[in-house]
Structure prediction request, 315 residues.
Amino acid sequence: MKARQRGIALLVALILVALSTAIAAAIAFDTGLGLRRSQGGLAQDQALLLAGGAEAFAAEILVDDLAFGNAQVYSAQRWHNPIGPLEPLPGVRVSAQLEDLQGRFNLNSLVTADGRVDPVALQVFRRLLQRLELEPEWADRMADWIDADDQALAAGAEDAVYSSAAPPYRTPGRPITSVAELLALPDLGAARYARLAPFVAALPRDAVINLCTASAELLDALTDERQWTGAPEALARNRARECFPTPATLRASMPPDAYERLQRSVGLADRSRHFGLQVEAGVGSTGFSLYSLLRATYGTEGPARIRVMSRQFSE
Prediction:
């Protein structure tokens, strides 16, 4: 009887030890998980502050290069140089790159201020798609996406097409704020979007094309030629120290009426106001990305001021 009681007591002791061990392990796991969460949150906050510092530094560079609004903006200037990668502290890294968004085709220029499709801008976009080896009908579909009427272009699509999708949706009938809206076009797909996105922007209608930073594909789409698409090295050499081509240079190479149509439609200049900034920051194993849309504004006195129009974050 006593031996049996001792066996039961031993069994109870073993169960208590097992329970204590499980509870201790659970407490240790929760404590470690909480600590990792705290460290991750702190690292994310630090990375955000680091990215904000890079944004402020990039804005200062733009102020220096843009001067008082009468200076050309071209890729040989300091703003175009990458920032970093830098490691201000062990385990802390940051890099940034500015891009002139007016060196891209502005999708909102496809439609005029009163909501009608601009035929000149539409033709430029069609040629850009062809230079990128994409189907030109996406120009019609994008124009129908943002125009004010419900009459589809020859290769376009209006609400009748979108309302039959699952789930159904409608065209916005207004300017877009993100090039990601291209993905709303039926069957565009990720591959076409990845090919097209680096060459287009979603800016206010008054944002003209900066010829000094326009891609070879866009320059050829404007002139309806294939001069630069096959010779990117030659274009880079011409831009090594100055703006190229200037509006005067382009005007001299085109029929005057063709140049004037482009000027009235998409606008041609050698200056810019809209810039995109991509920042990559990291603290330890925590990575952080910041994308900022910057706009330069000019007053009657003093240098340019840089305003942050939007920010997007990702981890």
